């Protein structure tokens, strides 16, 4: 670690009052404060040219030469993965940094765990599919298959015999678990058709995630040519400095970063429109095609979030829409009602509560039933969803679990109704 710290200082990084140590638990290294920082003070600064982004890599002579062999341009994720595949731990200019990177990761992809997508909660499903696709696409392009396709096996094998699927998987994880959102300039040799917004930033990438406690916010100060992490509130001596990687639930944290958080407020339950409609019907709301069309036009999500004190405004509004009378919807009259700033009529408000409570209990029971049927290794993801439902239900203040309506699954009416599916 000392070699890395010296390397950073020699490159102009500033991080007085911080030290990298291993926090308790299994989270690798973290950054701790050895002094008190006032809110607004920069705690880490480094020159922007030290951000490892696609432009930096493709302009390095080694990679420029290497990429000249390809007929197509690579995307930013592929370029950064390639960089971590090929940099030599001993001879690279980044050697002290490469040596402090984790050797392995606790993500399902790294451990070779392949979830059946149909057993995952909706909140993580698309992300899991996209991640698998991205890893296999990268390993095809940079690895064996790509070489076969391009008939340059011989040259690449001769130049880079160490390039294996395992190496690519490791390099991809380095990028995916450590990259930060930045707005990179366009570069002629980069395929930025899907954007170019990632960079791996040494030292800054030692910051761990805590969405509740985080004190560090990162800013690319283009005008000053530097990258800065600032204290967004006072940081006390001895505290671990955290940033927030995003409002992710635990399934997402595990799949993307290989860890979970106790009491994660990023937990959420996605309620797609067809499930909302089913729940509404169970709660006795007479939903017509007209209601469905208005719901589509309003376009609000019906999700439940662990951070919400009760069902969100958008979920309540969707229920409100479904309670509209035919005459209230005719000729676009619903817009005046739904978008009005006037307080909602107390009677309507009570009706929304009453219906929502039934709907959410039904949803909860459906998720509980689903949880029981899921393989053991993903049950905890569903249990987290049950907890989110519980918090929302508790907000109604009745909290009488014996009164929970039986789910359609229990009643044997419709296997999928009332579940998150
Ligand atoms: C950007 S790196 C942070 C530095 C990292 N701990 C290291 O030793 O290099 C992200 C990785 O740190 C770990 N991590 C970050 N926040 C964590 C937390 N709150 N709990 C456990 N592990 C965490 C995970 O392994 C994640 O993939």
UniProtKB/TrEMBL annotation:
Gene3D superfamilies: set domain protein methyltransferase, domain 1. Coiled coil: none annotated. GO terms for molecular function: histone H3K36 methyltransferase activity; histone H3K4 methyltransferase activity; transcription coactivator activity. Residues 16-246 form the SET domain. CDD domains: SET_SETD4. It comes from the Eukaryota. Residues 407-421 have a biased composition (Basic and acidic residues). Pfam families: SET. Residues 397-421 are annotated as: Disordered. One of its GO terms (biological process) is positive regulation of transcription by RNA polymerase II. PANTHER family: SET DOMAIN-CONTAINING PROTEIN 4, UNCHARACTERIZED PUTATIVE METHYLTRANSFERASE. This is Protein CBR-SET-29. It comes from Caenorhabditis briggsae. The gene is set-29.
């Amino acid at each position: 670690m000392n070699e890395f710290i010296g390397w950073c200082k020699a490159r102009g990084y500033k991080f007085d009052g911080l030290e990298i140590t291993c926090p308790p638990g299994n989270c690798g290294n973290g950054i701790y404060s050895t002094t008190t920082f006032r809110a607004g003070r920069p705690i880490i600064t480094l020159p922007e040219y030290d951000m490892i982004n696609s432009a930096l890599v493709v302009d390095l002579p080694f990679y420029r030469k290497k990429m000249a062999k390809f007929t197509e341009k690579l995307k930013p994720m592929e370029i950064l993965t390639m960089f971590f595949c090929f940099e030599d731990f001993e001879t690279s200019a980044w050697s002290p940094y490469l040596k402090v990177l984790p050797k392995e990761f606790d993500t399902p992809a790294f451990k070779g765990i392949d979830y059946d997508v149909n057993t995952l909660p909706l909140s993580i499903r698309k992300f899991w599919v996209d991640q698998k696709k991205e890893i296999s696409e990268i390993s095809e392009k940079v690895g064996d298959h790509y070489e076969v396709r391009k008939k340059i096996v011989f040259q690449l094998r001769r130049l880079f015999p160490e390039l294996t699927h395992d190496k690519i998987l490791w390099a991809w994880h380095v990028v995916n678990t450590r990259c930060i959102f930045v707005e990179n300039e366009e570069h002629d040799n980069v395929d930025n058709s899907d954007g170019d917004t990632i960079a791996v930033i040494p030292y800054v990438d030692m910051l761990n995630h805590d969405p509740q406690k985080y004190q560090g916010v990162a800013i690319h100060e283009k005008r000053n040519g530097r990258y800065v992490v600032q204290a967004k509130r006072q940081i006390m001596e001895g505290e671990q400095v955290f940033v927030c990687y995003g409002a992710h639930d635990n399934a997402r944290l595990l799949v993307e970063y290989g860890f979970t958080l106790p009491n994660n407020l990023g937990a959420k339950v996605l309620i797609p429109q067809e499930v909302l409609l089913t729940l509404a019907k169970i709660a006795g709301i007479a939903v017509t095609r007209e209601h469905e069309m208005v719901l589509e036009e309003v376009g609000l999500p019906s999700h439940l979030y662990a951070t919400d004190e009760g069902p969100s405004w958008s979920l309540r509004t969707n229920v409100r829409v479904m309670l509209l009378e035919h005459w209230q919807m005719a000729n676009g009259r619903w817009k005046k009602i739904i978008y009005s700033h006037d307080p909602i009529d107390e009677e309507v408000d009570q009706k929304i509560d009453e219906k929502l409570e039934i709907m959410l209990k039904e949803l909860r029971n459906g998720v509980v039933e689903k949880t029981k049927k899921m393989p053991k290794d993903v049950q905890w993801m569903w249990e987290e969803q049950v907890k989110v439902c519980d918090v929302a239900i508790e907000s109604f203040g009745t909290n009488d679990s014996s009164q929970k309506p039986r789910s359609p699954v229990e009643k044997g009416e419709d296997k999928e109704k009332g579940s998150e599916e």
